[in-house]
Write the structure tokens for this entry.
Amino acid sequence: MGPEPNSPACSCCAPRAAPPGRMRHRGGETLHRHLHEQPFAAIVLAGGYVEAGDTGRHCVSAGDVLVHGAFERHLDRFDPRGAEVLVLPLKGRWRGPVRGRVADPDAIARLAESDLIAAQELLDRDIVVRASSGIDWPDLLAADLLAAPDLPLAKWAKQRGLHPASLSRGFRQQFEVTPAQFRLIARTRRGIDRVIETGTTLATIAVAEGFADQAHMTRSIMRQTGRSPRALRSELGFSG
């Protein structure tokens, strides 16, 4: 029996703590799909890579910023030149863009050496939105599923002249999950956001986000975060 749709597929996908500071990656290196429990911003200082994960697929280079929420999973494929990336932990709830760009990433890196909070404040002031660069059909499908997790996959494939098996295989080659798995992840992340940010009953959230029932949502959130919705709300979320 294979892994659950939004669970780690193997030991290499266990939660990774993203230590603050500069990280260097070898040319051609691949980090397979893995989990980060804590939110952080990845600021590219040099080189480049492609990231494919819960927010879509992003091709980034020096000056680009990718912001990751808590409990996100993604994979990274580094260019032949490798990459140097500043990992900046984020405190509080990030309200800026998922993908952006800064004019002087090195200034943020230097500030982060002495004051992580000030570095985050500088990032918040300087970041400008940058649209995703993905134009292949897997990128379009990921974007459509993020916008509407109930999207009928067979209909989407037919409209673009793709066989359902080719759709599943091609998407998985890029994201290491199938479109159906990605859809459940998208639905689960929407549920997590509503659990954390509102006082809406869990049963109401489950229905609104397309789960079969509250138990179904609870199981999916447990697989994604390792916490029940009630524990997640108590730890991170709505308090009144």
Notes: Residues 91 and 117 are 8 Å apart (CA to CA). The beta strands are 21-25, 30-36, 40-53, 56-61, 64-68, 72-89, 99-101, 128-129.
